[in-house]
Amino acid sequence: MNLVKATGTIGGLTLVSRIAGFGREMLMSRVMGASWQADAFFVAFRLPNTFRRLFGEGAFSAGFVPLYAQRLQGENGEAEAKHFSEEVLAVFVPALVLFTLLFEIIMPLFVAAISGYSGEKLGLATFLTRITFPYLILISLVSLFSGIFNSLAKFTAAAFAPALLNITMLAALIFVRDGGEVSATAPAIAVTIGGVLQLGLLWWAARRAGITLKLRRTRLTPGVRQFGRVVIPATLGAGVYQISAFIDTFFLARIGTGALSYFNYADRLNQLPLGVIGAALGTAILPQVSKHVGANEPHMAAKVQGQAAELAMLLCLPAALALAVSAGPLASALFQGGRFTAEDAGLTALTLSIIVLGLPAYVLVKVLTPGFYARQDTATPVKIACIVLVATVVLNFALIPPFGIAGLASAIAICSWLNCLMLYVVLHRRGHFRIEGWLASRIARQFAAGALMVAALYAIKLAIPEWFTGSAGHRLVGVLALVSGGMAVYFPAVWVLGGMDKEDIKALLSRRGKRGSDSV
Questions:
Q1: How confident is the model at residue 518 (pLDDT cuts 50, 70, 90)?
Q2: Is the pLDDT at 505 greater than 60, yes or no?
Q3: How far apart are CA 88 and CA 228, in angstroms?
Q4: Rama region for 513: left / alpha / beta (φ>0; ψ in -120 to 50; rest)
Q5: Mean pLDDT across 109-121
Q6: 339: which strand partners?
Q7: Is 233 or 41 the better-scoring residue by pLDDT?
Q8: 23, 332, 439, 504 - which has most CB atoms within 10 Å?
Q9: Per residue in 433-470, is it b (16+ CB within 10 Å) or e — as a string?
Q10: CB-neighbour burial class of residue 518 (10 A; exposed 0-12, middle 13-18, buried 19+)
């Protein structure tokens, strides 16, 4: 499998989902504004998504994919892997159902503890969260099917599935535009409907691929025990990250009305390169690193991670710099209008310009953690995550009182780099991965190209300031000028300066995998 081609496939389809997500957020901002009803919806949307990352992405990225890939290499191949999947499914489904039922019962207490809401606002947030929470079961099952497809290097259906959620929510906002509680309820219902559609797509794709899973009787088989030994530490590690997300929600809810909305819209822009680049790379390289580690080829595993780090920085460095410089025009063009004021857009831009400074580190974490997961070491990332969590809490308490939402964004950016640095140091000391001279040289050249791009973006802002105010159409044209101008400078510059593997880029453009030593 060619890493660049696989990343391009996953990233391209993820981009479709992100574009639909942007349409959803643009309409949400205009319909709901930065109101307390919007804040209540974002609490209801964040909670099941936080647990999704814990049970779905955390468990299956860390445990299921390496173990499934290991069985594919075994004597019975696909039959053994299929049997393992069914054993895991038989335990996973009842556990998810019980967990969801428990939280549906204690939802008022849980939402109150996380948000600090009371009265009417607590009632709406609880009602909406009870609607969205079953999404956890659906998306966790989607993660299981996605893990199977990714292990088989079949990325299309799993990468496209998230678009169905965004399309469903977008449709709900188009048809229910009254604002207030009614417009907050419509996308909440759409969340669960979107989960049903995602699971339906993956189930249909599995049937077409000849993958049929039966729901067996729940049993703690040797395979399930092995899965548990790997997944429990990984889930605890993911849990640390999600506790951090709960802490963010806790502080945002107390900063004041609108803070959750500002952070959500800023994070939506931040998540575009995270989803397209970070998630795509992490998904693409884990099966390959696992394969090389299983075949006792540590040099090839390190090579995959090195190529992924190069590609990550090539794409996310300009994204981070461009988002930081262009935060104001972007937030104004995309979200300002209707009930979302210029002041709201300004606070969203401030949050975005700070939080994206941690973007390269966050993407590199997606590249580094497979080096642990492929070796079935999920304990080390847990320990590092705990240290990062403590640092996040300390920084939140230190920075939020004087700086408000800007302080919270700063804490997130700083701790992203702390996490990245600690993961790299451990891998380096163990001899699993190191930044070699060729990689350091390319990253330095990428920074040089990024500096040229930043200069060009400032020049564009100074040359046509009138295009960043006025009507929505004017502001959109100004943003398009920034995007096209930045790309027109960065990519030619990084090509000329030698900040990329030109053969890999040619392979991506031609959609052909390379052969020989260039293939991973």
A1: very low
A2: no
A3: 9
A4: beta
A5: 89
A6: none
A7: 41
A8: 332
A9: beeeeebeebbebbeebbebbbebbeebbeeeeebbee
A10: middle
Buried b (16+ CB within 10 A) or exposed e, 240-256: bbbbbbbbbbebbbebe
C-alpha span between 111 and 132 (Å, rounded): 13
- At 142-189, the pLDDT tens digits run 887 887 776 676 767 777 888 899 899 999 999 988 888 998 999 999
Asked if residues 48 and 191 have their Cβ atoms less than 8 Å apart, the reply is: yes
| Residue 435 pLDDT > 80 | yes
Q: What pLDDT, on the 0 to 100 scale, is given for residue 114?
A: 84
Alpha carbon distances (Å) from 81 to 19, 139, 148, 291: 35, 21, 9, 15
Mean pLDDT value of segment 392-418: 93
Cα angle: 386, vertex 108, 238; to 5 degrees:
20
CA distance 406 to 415: 14
Question: DSSP assignment of 155-197, as one string?
Answer: -HHHHHHHHHHHHHHHHHHHH--S-HHHHHHHHHHHHHHHHHH
- Number of residues in the chain: 520
What value, to the nearest 5°, has the Cα angle with vertex 230 and ends 133 and 149?
Answer: 65
Amino acid at 502: K
Q: For the chain, how long is the longest CA-to-CA vector?
A: 68
Using a 10 angstrom Cβ sphere, with 0-12 exposed, 13-18 middle and 19 or more buried, the burial of residue 204 is exposed
Mean pLDDT of 438-459: 94
**DSSP codes joined into one string, 420-485:** HHHHHHHHHHHTS----HHHHHHHHHHHHHHHHHHHHHHHHHHH-GGGGSSSHHHHHHHHHHHHHH
The dihedral region occupied by 218, where left means phi > 0, alpha psi between -120 and 50, and beta the remainder, is beta
- Reduced to 3 states (helix: H, G, I; strand: E, B; else coil), residue 220 is coil
Mean pLDDT (whole number) for 245-253: 82
pLDDT range class, residue 237, cuts 50, 70, 90:
low
The whole-model pTM stands at: 0.71
Residue 351 sits at the vertex; the CA angle it makes with 347 and 357, to the nearest 5 degrees, is: 155
Angle between helices 405-430 and 359-368 (to 10 degrees): 30
pLDDT value of position 216: 77
Query: Is residue 134 classed as helix, strand or coil in its secondary structure?
Result: coil
Closest among 322, 410, 407, 427 to 365, alpha carbons compared? 427
Whose CA is closest to 470, among 322, 329, 324, 326?
329
Q: What is the pLDDT of residue 58?
A: 56
